[in-house]
């Protein structure tokens, strides 16, 4: 069991009708606000008008950057950083899901340096992130957990790279507004992808053979059961508050560092998925959903089976008296059923137009031309095999 | 489901050999440090010497206040506040368990005002707590969770009052050092009382009929299973790191506000126990252990049984096909067995020298001469009956 530092000073306003606190919270950090968002969905839902009214009422000066794309691009970050410098922005307000939040964090860091923001993420440079403008956010999608972590993932289409980095607490949002009812209008497809993403975040940390804190394993099982219980409910009744609330709070706690509890193992499916998104610009949660059951299948052997047993019994209620390998196989099947049948996500690369073309390159990059030191260490050849299983 | 604000900006260094960071953390807040502690146990264990060495090495000026008692008294708080003013203290370092931490928080607040610190707690005054000196701590006992909450309970022996108040984030520690190996020397009795205290904190919040966040119920069940699994292990093997680590981290998360998740119900056993401690100066966890099963028994009826069923099945693995009332009774029995047989705590007031003498007064005070609005609202007569059941 490794020692660790827990430090998550994000203030979260959870629930409905909390935006009345937005003005007072922004004011703590200055008067010139850059609001960042994606497409027009926040305008259609009325959220945009509510937020603008709060900002005006607080007497703050508002600037805007819209059009932040899913899998946000480095050019957008560059543009945002430039606006911050030119307009002397004091504080950023991200309104959106993980993409908008991630881009905004790197804009906030980029605003404080003279170099290209890509230098923060470029593996050959990894420029230090010493400071960043304060970021607040209004979350509109339960998925990435960016509202409570210090990380952000950015795509560079020119180099086909999608790279992330966690710099905590510098890039942690100061304040996050989480209103489950804001997610009533999230489409079935995005709800499904978001749920797959939350589940994957927990599984990346749960599938681990390090000696561990049992209390965190219990919590992780609770988080996974929460996704399994409420994602179908949110799909069937998009305005079910209980379902949206549980998914939203689970998304934050799946990745804010608490459940890591000192574990030092690297993640597996996320680095593989980032290559898919970088080359094919697919939705992150969908890529994870296709990869996860194949990764589970590939990693299963006598040395790892105990974790599958714990998972299958405690999360899916599989009969603990069965043979361990049988429990493991049933648990992989249960995950597949959840992702493809219950959530209705596509189950193969072929269905979403991905073929073998870039397997070699993507696999090489996913393991950084070495070994991905996750649950089961994976080399380029292993990752290629997992990709093959996804066809 | 109520809206809520989650805001726990406590930085926690968890694990062994983290005290090397103590100097740098104290320095952020100033140079004149008042270290507070209880008896001589930290001198016998060597912890005192380690901490003093770190403080000296950081070039800080050290002042001390020792002798903070279990169930800390208002006179000690007054003395500490006076020292802070006279010595122009910048930052407080509490080294101990919940009693030392609680006293130190109120010293930190008392240092910033001209009035008597009891005015903060006196129900007829409740003086505002607008600021406090920064508090850091080195925890030596897994129990109260004071290391991650903004509360503190103080006894006034003159008035037989034991009163607490939560003022978050003003009274939150800035940094807490949690080293499970420091608790190896905690006695069996204190380990048992601390475990009963953690369990009670969770039960006070779990036994609740408000519509709730399922993910938090799962986590609470995990916390309770953690105490039930590891308390006996810590009793049998005081230097079992895994057991001490799980108990220690569970103690923090049982009461830092996360599991409350917007629930507005007041606690029940704690207000009753505070009266016992105020009149008889008993160990807090022991008082809770005697009260809890009787409170469970008293509150059980057709309107509340569903929560006992959830508890019994998910925490103690009681057969879910049984009659609900039978599951409830078995779950009360399971809690009793855990507290009295497994932990070895005394099971009656009579055994610890408490008789009917003050039942009326204590009951009247516990409900503040009205109704205690907990899991089942309790009036003075209800509380007297629960006290009777404890004889």
Automatic annotation (TrEMBL), chains A, B:
Domain Fe-containing alcohol dehydrogenase-like C-terminal per the UniProt entry, residue ranges: 191-388
PROSITE patterns: ADH_IRON_2 (PS00060)
Keywords: Oxidoreductase
Superkingdom of the source species: Bacteria
InterPro entries, sorted: ADH_Fe/GldA, ADH_Fe_C, ADH_Fe_CS, BDH-like
SUPFAM superfamilies, alphabetized: Dehydroquinate synthase-like
Record protein name field: Iron-containing alcohol dehydrogenase
